[in-house]
Specification:
- It is a single chain.
- By secondary structure, the chain is of the alpha/beta class.
- About 45% of the residues lie in helices and about 15% in strands.
- Helix 5 packs across helix 6.
- It is elongated, with a radius of gyration of 32 Å.
Length: about 375
């Protein structure tokens, strides 16, 4: 009987942990029922304790935190590009609140709020800080020299000293540029082709950013000279100034309006387009979003794609890449779009040859 009891306990102990030989779990000394029962419980309990997972393996994995400093006043106003950015994150497996935590701030184009909100985000110590537009990027740079920064929608990051060069950013900042200035010539050439009799036109600019405004004016003038165009800058400080600005354009007998890649005008794209349509003025812009709001023509990169690509830069940073080692990305594909519905509304017709060259025509 004793040998049968011993064999049964050996078999049970071995089944509890097949990697430990039964002759280690139970000795071959004389059988003592009470002591053996206690020894067996200790032995089996020790095996279970030894095989518990490490304490750190039971902890929830840290969710990366990503700060985003936009330029408009709300998520609703940023819906198009915010949606594109989130689409890019989703495609990489990042879901807000589950595998990533987005901390978003909206300064509403108020210079002081760019600075205060950049400092607020930096104080949260995010793993990466995304800054949308030049003002946001400069504020983020001022707020931190250590947190990785990815800028988006900045026309000349080298010129404003965000990076040392496009190929070698050289610090905690890199990102994506839309090289707006280099496209000014192409934009005006298409505008002139559509309206060959046009000799005088307006360039709508933001008076709050004199450095960027000067660059837009210089680029437009350089392109306009070869096209036989005279470009007149028309300044606005807020969207409330738009109607007055367009009245000046009409009073000055300017024949068309070009709008640069300026965040203020993107934010007020419907107001800009409505002001031009009401005065039967052709409007040349830089993006699909302004064209869909009612502008006549646009030429530029796919801005939504740029924001989807920004998610890829976030992913690279979260995987351990350094901003200094990531070249600034420039767009390689551009789209020429025509809003023929607007053309009919303001009483203009676009030549068939130009319509055929467009990547898309809105009817």
């Amino acid at each position: 009987m004793e040998s049968q009891n011993r064999a049964s306990l050996q078999t049970l102990a071995a089944a509890s942990h097949p990697m430990v030989p039964a002759n280690i779990m139970l000795s071959h000394r004389a059988w003592e029922p009470t002591m053996r029962r206690r020894d067996f419980v200790k032995a089996v309990g020790g095996i279970f304790v030894a095989w518990l997972p490490p304490a750190h393996a039971q902890h929830t994995k840290k969710i990366p935190r990503v700060g985003v400093l936009w330029h408009a006043g709300s998520a609703q106003e940023e819906a198009v590009y915010l949606g594109a950015f989130q689409q890019g994150l989703d495609g990489l497996g990042y879901v807000d609140g589950k595998t990533i935590r987005l901390e978003q701030r909206f300064p509403d184009e108020i210079p002081e709020r760019f600075v205060s909100l950049a400092n607020e985000l930096a104080g949260l110590r995010p793993d990466v800080l995304v800054a949308v537009t030049q003002q946001a990027a400069l504020a983020a740079k001022q707020a931190t020299a250590t947190i990785p920064i990815i800028f988006v929608d900045v026309p000349d990051p080298v010129g404003v000293k965000l990076v040392k060069s496009l190929s070698h950013p050289g610090s905690n900042i890199t990102g994506l540029t839309h090289i707006a200035g280099e496209l000014s010539g192409k934009r005006l050439a298409l505008f002139k082709e559509a309206f060959p009799q046009m000799t005088r036109m307006a360039l709508l600019v933001n008076a709050n950013d004199q450095e960027t405004t000067k660059r837009y004016i210089d680029e437009a003038n350089a392109a306009a000279t070869a096209l036989g165009l005279n470009v007149q800058p028309v300044e606005v400080r807020s969207l409330a100034d738009l109607n007055e600005a367009f009245d000046k354009i009409v009073a000055g007998r300017l024949e068309g309006v070009a709008v640069p890649a300026e965040p203020l005008f993107y934010q007020g794209r419907s107001l800009v387009s409505q002001a031009a349509i009401a005065r039967r003025l052709p409007l040349m812009v830089h993006s699909r979003e302004l064209l869909e709001a009612g502008a006549l023509m646009s030429y530029g990169p796919d801005q939504r794609r740029i924001f989807r690509r920004a998610a890829g830069y976030v992913d690279l940073i979260l995987r351990g890449e350094k901003p200094a080692d990531l070249p600034v990305e420039q767009p390689t594909k551009f789209e020429f779009l025509i809003n023929n519905k607007t053309a009919r509304e303001i009483g203009f017709s676009i030549s068939e040859s130009l319509l055929l060259r467009a990547d898309e025509v809105i009817e």
